[in-house]
């Protein structure tokens, strides 16, 4: 089971990415299970709030699992992106989702984080985008983060690649993270505390508020997303170049 979903009796569902041996990277099975989970929660009236997290302490999610051998079409003008439908909003779920970020969150993890209402992070959490280092365009990821962070911070994270990671405290300073959970405190408990408060409010008011917030950002996001696939097709390095750069990824990094 690559995704676990626990529906509690208090109106909260806890969804856990459960591939800790792969840093909770997403393969096709995980992508399908995530989509199916959001679909199920959409119609489960007993669930009013969801908490999304990753198994283990090392990583929340490290994006697409490059070892999964996900096929791509031969045409350079076509890109099959298995992550486009893994987020709750892409599945038309308008119940609030809180992300509890433990450890690394990078690359394709931003498809998920961009569609959560707010993020709570463990103090050791880090955020980074490796795409440019590997000769890949950061399109969907950067568009999602540009809705949550100042332009300069998104640009720096995307362009620095694997050379730099955004620490939890800095992520809080720039508005990506709403709460940092100190060492020695339980991250999931902090997320559940917030979820419990929200679950106690009238359902219609909560979901209407979520939809209103997304309406405020959706127009510019839709325009940006319409260009993403073509930018990826035009800007990505050839597959063999990406593999070569990925194989040499062991360089150090700094945290800010």
Automatic annotation (TrEMBL):
Keyword Cell inner membrane: no
GO molecular function terms noted in the UniProt entry: isomerase activity
Entries under InterPro entries matching the protein: ClpP/crotonase-like_dom_sf, Enoyl-CoA_hydra/iso
Gene3D superfamilies: 2-enoyl-CoA Hydratase, Chain A, domain 1
SUPFAM superfamilies (UniProt xref): ClpP/crotonase
Annotated keywords: Isomerase
Pfam families assigned: ECH_1
Protein family per UniProt: Belongs to the enoyl-CoA hydratase/isomerase family.
Protein name stated in the entry: Enoyl-CoA hydratase/isomerase
Organism this protein belongs to: Streptantibioticus cattleyicolor (strain ATCC 35852 / DSM 46488 / JCM 4925 / NBRC 14057 / NRRL 8057) (Streptomyces cattleya)
């Amino acid at each position: 089971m690559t995704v676990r979903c626990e529906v509690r009796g208090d109106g909260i569902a806890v969804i856990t990415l459960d591939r800790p041996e792969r840093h909770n990277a997403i393969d096709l099975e995980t992508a399908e299970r995530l989509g199916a989970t959001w679909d199920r929660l959409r119609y489960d009236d007993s669930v009013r709030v969801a908490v999304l997290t990753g198994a283990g302490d090392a990583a929340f999610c490290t994006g697409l699992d490059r070892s999964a051998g996900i096929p791509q079409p031969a045409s350079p003008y076509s890109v099959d992106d298995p992550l486009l439908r893994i987020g709750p909003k892409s599945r038309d779920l308008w119940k609030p989702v809180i992300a509890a970020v433990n450890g690394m969150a990078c690359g394709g993890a931003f498809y998920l984080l961009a569609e959560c209402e707010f993020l709570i992070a463990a103090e050791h959490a880090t955020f980074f985008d490796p795409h440019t280092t590997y000769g890949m365009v950061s399109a969907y990821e950067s568009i999602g983060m540009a809705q949550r962070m100042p332009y300069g911070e998104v640009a720096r994270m995307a362009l620095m690649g694997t050379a730099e990671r955004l620490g939890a405290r800095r992520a809080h300073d720039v508005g990506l993270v709403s709460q940092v959970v100190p060492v020695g405190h339980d991250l999931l408990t902090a997320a559940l505390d917030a979820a419990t408060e929200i679950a106690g409010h009238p359902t219609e008011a909560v979901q209407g508020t979520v939809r209103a917030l997304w309406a405020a950002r959706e127009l510019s996001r839709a325009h940006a997303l319409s260009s993403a696939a073509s930018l990826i097709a035009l800007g990505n390095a050839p597959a063999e170049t990406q593999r070569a750069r990925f194989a040499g990824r062991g360089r150090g990094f700094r945290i800010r």
